[in-house]
Write a structure and sequence with these properties.
Length: about 350
């Protein structure tokens, strides 16, 4: 016997990947419902070799459904996640709405699967920000060995992190640059994204940082360890899918780069590609469609007593969103709901 599973936001970037990954990983599904807004009513989406017809989230009755994977943004989540949870359906949410709620566990299964039991307080589990998810997968095994004191991270985030509209804007603006009269003004992004980089993701905070940067700080503390200090600079780059991060880590104890490489080679969810030669590292286009978080350029930081630098790349629609959500559903099934 399997689960009755809902995917809310099934026509979006993350929702479509959720359906792909549920099918790829053969999640035990008895019945599946694909939901989106009313304007998408009847739109067809793929689930393995089946085609599903999208239903309206607004009128959907969650009674009798086991798990709902939400990827609809915070505003719609605020309206519909409590309805689903109250009907007895466990919500795994990709928006930022519940991530900082002390009664909602924020889970990356490779790091803190043990916290999942906390879902019972609200029947909701939160999925982290895409940049946080891939970073903590890399940090966890290193933290276990040498205790991380401080992390300095700069991100290079793809436009798919800004939804379908982000992808369309990069595509149309890039074409428009070469076709006179078809120039596309910035709309989703604050400045031209084609052939440019923008050091601004989400809104500005009082201290001059952005909400995206604040999320990486707060979420790393909640998932990994509240004692770890993080400072982040988040940058949008003209890449369709795949987020990259330059990560500088300061440890309590000395950690040799060779040992760090060996630890990461053994770590769940991580693949090390680190040859010190041209092309001996991973770039975002190579990670698309994969489950792994790739680590390259592992090297000592000689300006610190106990410092290490590394390069971290992952598919933001997969480990950064849909894959992590499905992994949470797997943990929930194995440890808590016990069906299938
Ligand atoms: N993209 C990433 O890398 C990433 C990573 C982590 C978390 N997330 C989060 O995941 C969520 C979805 O992101 P996305 O990139 O998939 O966005 P997207 O491509 O813009 O898709 C949004 C989806 O939500 C649906 N939706 C929006 N408002 C709705 C409403 N009021 N009622 C019902 N359905 C509604 C849309 O349906 P229609 O097609 O009918 O409009 C669509 O299916 C966001 O909270 C985002 O922050 C994204």
């Amino acid at each position: 016997m399997g689960y009755r599973v809902v995917v809310a936001g099934a026509t979006g970037n993350v929702g479509r990947e959720m359906l792909n990954i549920l099918a790829e990983r053969e999640f035990p599904v008895d019945e599946i419902a694909a939901l989106a807004s009313r304007k998408s009513l009847g739109t067809e989406v793929s689930f393995g070799d089946k085609t599903l017809t999208t239903k309206d989230l607004d009128t959907f009755d969650f009674t009798g459904w086991d798990i709902a994977l939400f990827a609809v943004g915070s505003e719609a989540t605020k309206v519909y996640a409590p309805k689903a949870a109250a009907a007895g359906c466990v919500v795994i949410d990709n928006s930022s709405l519940y991530r900082y709620d002390p009664q909602v566990p924020l889970i990356v299964p490779e790091v803190n699967a043990g916290s999942i039991e906390g879902y019972k307080a609200k029947n909701i589990i939160a999925n982290p920000n895409c940049s946080t998810a891939q970073m903590v997968v890399a940090l966890k095994p290193l933290h276990d060995r040498a205790r991380i004191k401080r992390v300095v991270v700069s991100t290079y985030q793809s436009v798919s992190g800004a939804g379908k509209a982000g992808i369309d804007e990069l595509w149309n603006q890039t074409k428009g640059i070469y076709v006179p009269g078809q120039e596309v003004a910035p709309e989703k992004f604050t400045k031209q994204i084609a052939f440019n980089v923008i050091p601004h993701i989400d809104s500005f905070m009082e201290d001059g940082s952005t909400k995206e940067e604040w999320k990486m700080v707060a979420e790393t503390k909640k998932i990994l360890d509240p004692k770890v200090k993080v400072t982040a600079t988040c940058v949008r780059v003209p890449v369709f899918v795949g987020h990259s991060e330059s990560i500088n880590i300061e440890f309590e104890d000395f950690l040799d780069e060779e040992e760090a490489r060996d630890i990461l080679r053994e770590a769940p969810g991580v693949l090390v590609v680190d040859k010190r030669e041209a092309g001996g590292y991973i770039t975002p286009v190579e990670c698309v469609g994969d489950y792994a978080t790739y680590i390259s350029r592992i090297r000592q930081d000689s300006t610190l007593d106990n410092g290490l630098n590394l390069w971290c790349v992952s598919d933001n629609l997969r480990k950064g969103a849909a894959l992590n959500a499905v992994q949470i559903a797997e943990v929930l099934g194995n440890r808590c709901l016990k069906k299938g």
